[in-house]
Design brief:
β13 (about 360) and β14 form a beta hairpin. This protein has helices at about 50-60, 105-115, 130-145, 150-155, 185-200, 225-230, 250-255, 260-280, 300-310, 325-340, 375-385, and strands spanning about 1-5, 15, 25, 65-70, 90-95, 100, 120-125, 165-170, 205-210, 240-245, 285-295, 345-350, 360, 370, 385-390, 390-395, 395-400, 405, 410-415, 420-425, 435-440, 445-455, 475, 480, 485-490, 495-500. The strands form six sheets. Strands 3-4-7-8-9-10-11-12 form an eight-stranded parallel barrel, surrounded by six helices. Strands 2-15-19-20-26-22-23 form a seven-stranded antiparallel sheet, covered by helices on one side. By secondary structure, the protein is of the alpha/beta class. The protein folds into two domains: about 1-10 and about 390-500, Golgi alpha-mannosidase II (Immunoglobulin-like), CATH 2.60.40.1180; about 20-385, Glycosidases (TIM Barrel, Alpha-Beta Barrel), CATH 3.20.20.80. The protein is globular, with a radius of gyration of 23 Å.
């Protein structure tokens, strides 16, 4: 058995964990909305057509914020289409995903759904085909108390009280040539500055997220952030990052090392933000919104076939990745990476929430179940609150195609307000268990309260409607505490949640 060690101290604080790092995303794409969260006539549908079984799975995740309505979709979206009597709402061609949008679920309905899910809305405005005027109007519609054209229209449409949406995205991936209304960094920076300024004049309590690069493989990465922030730094509160990972070559050790790429990405964007702030001699510090992240590659070929057969259909089954056990391990390492950067990563959205590259799957007219990646998000959201701690970890390492010295044990920890500690750890070793020794003497008397393990002998194992708990958490060994030191076994290829309570 291999050995690793960790030293934790309550004074080794990275920063407060913002609960919004456990957010998610619902786009008008595929079966995320229609036949996902919304399916009138389903046996589990409520009076508004929302599936109660899906809502229950979402509530178990304790998702604090859900980004909506896109995504690429939002760059061609007229928000006014989504309010008013449903039967009078227009059907539109969605050029982002080559489908037809019926607008059956709109702003009012989604706000209702989010409340039922015990979540808040993170609303994206269209800065592709539209601009600052439409952006400030939707803020007025959603958040102004009344007595103006747009707020009175909201009241007329059935919502007397404002929606109180506090977090707003200034467009989506505007550096991408695939985006409707694609812009240069300077063009986007100017429109983002004006939109943010006007939106905050309408409601000074809101926060806004500027579009960073769609991913760090873009040829304009870095220069995009530096130039666009030069135009809007004073008006924005966060910069977005997006990143997806795949394993098309079936290289599990290399795939599980991808969180190292993520950490480099985060640190690079932080450096650029601080460089712009330094150039402007600003005391303001911009934080990050990692508002799209996940594994995404399983469904690529399938999507091409669907478009060939049924272009412009409604609620096509697009981007329906079926996640396996190794995907869950990487999802766990991604969450660990966010916690290790909790001083600057304040928002993160698993993309997406239902059916579309999602932790929750449904069958039309049938069941709903949790995919493998559901569990690390649920555990982190439940137990990864309070203060993120900076662990000193000594671990065996391995080399892979893209990285050298990859730690076998990927781990971090949090401490809640009562002094209870939670350790999150992934054992990346393909074959061997690891004996992890944790020095916890700085916390006083702690006792091992719970050890949760996600493990499967087959890295390609998946959950299905017929076998929804094929990959599911179980109780671990629990470990042994002695004189403030914990010894615990981490199974090969496992996600571990180690909860330690004040004695």
């Amino acid at each position: 058995m291999k050995k690793a060690s960790m030293i934790l101290d309550r004074d080794f604080a990275i920063g407060a964990v913002d609960p919004r790092i456990y957010g998610s995303f619902i786009e008008h794409l595929g079966r995320a909305v229609y036949n996902g969260i919304y399916e009138p006539g389903h046996p589990a549908a409520d009076e508004q057509g929302f599936r109660r079984d899906v809502l229950e799975l979402v509530r178990r995740l304790h998702v604090p914020v859900v980004r909506y309505p896109g995504g690429n979709f939002v760059s061609g979206f007229n928000w006014e289409d989504s309010v008013g009597p449903v039967k009078q709402r227009p059907h539109r061609l969605d050029l982002a995903w080559f489908t037809t949008e019926t607008n059956e679920v709109g702003l009012h309905e989604f706000v209702d759904w989010a409340r039922k899910a015990n979540s808040q809305v993170m609303y994206a405005v269209n800065l592709g085909t539209r601009g600052a005027d439409a952006a400030r109007n939707v803020v007025e519609y959603a958040n102004h108390r009344g007595g103006t054209y747009w707020s009175d229209l909201r009241i007329k449409n059935g919502a007397k009280d404002p929606f109180g949406i506090k977090l707003w995205c200034l467009g989506n991936e505007m550096d991408g040539p695939w985006q409707m209304g694609h812009k240069t960094a300077y063009e986007y920076g100017r429109v983002a500055n004006e939109a943010a300024k006007m939106m905050k004049w309408v409601d000074p309590s809101i926060e806004v997220v500027a579009c960073g690069s769609a991913n760090h493989d873009m040829v304009t990465f870095g220069e995009w952030e530096y130039t666009m922030l030069g135009e809007c730094y004073d008006q924005v509160d966060y910069v977005s990052l997006h990143r997806y990972y795949g394993n098309p070559t079936n290289d599990t050790p290399g795939f599980l090392a991808r969180s190292m790429d993520l950490d480099e990405f985060i640190k690079t964007v932080v450096s650029i933000c601080d460089a712009v702030g330094g150039r402007r001699k600003s005391k303001k510090k911009l934080n990050l919104s990692f508002d799209e992240w996940n594994v995404w590659y399983h469904s690529n070929q399938q999507d091409q076939e669907i478009w060939k057969q049924d272009k412009w259909g409604r609620a096509l089954p697009l981007l329906e990745d079926i996640y396996n056990f190794e995907d869950a391990l990487l999802a766990g390492s991604i969450l660990i990476t966010f916690l290790r950067n909790a001083d600057r990563v304040k928002i993160a959205c698993l993309a997406q929430l239902v059916n579309v590259i999602a932790p929750i799957m449904t069958r039309n007219g049938g069941g709903a179940w949790a995919q493998t990646i559901y569990y690390p998000l649920m555990h982190a959201s439940l137990y990864g609150r309070g203060t993120a701690l900076r662990p000193i970890v000594s671990s065996p390492v391995y080399d892979c195609a893209d990285y050298e010295n990859v730690p076998v044990v990927d781990a971090t920890a949090t401490m809640d307000d009562d002094g209870n500690v939670t350790i999150f750890a992934v054992n990346r070793d393909m074959a061997e268990d690891v004996l992890l020794t944790c020095d916890l003497r700085a916390f006083g008397d702690l006792k091992a309260a719970e050890h949760i393990v996600l493990h499967h002998d087959d890295v390609k194992a998946v959950n299905t409607e017929e076998n929804p708990e094929n990959v599911a958490p179980s109780a671990g060994s629990g470990g042994r505490m002695d004189g403030g030191r914990l010894e615990i076994c981490l199974r090969n290829l496992s996600w571990n949640v180690i909860r330690l309570a004040k004695a």
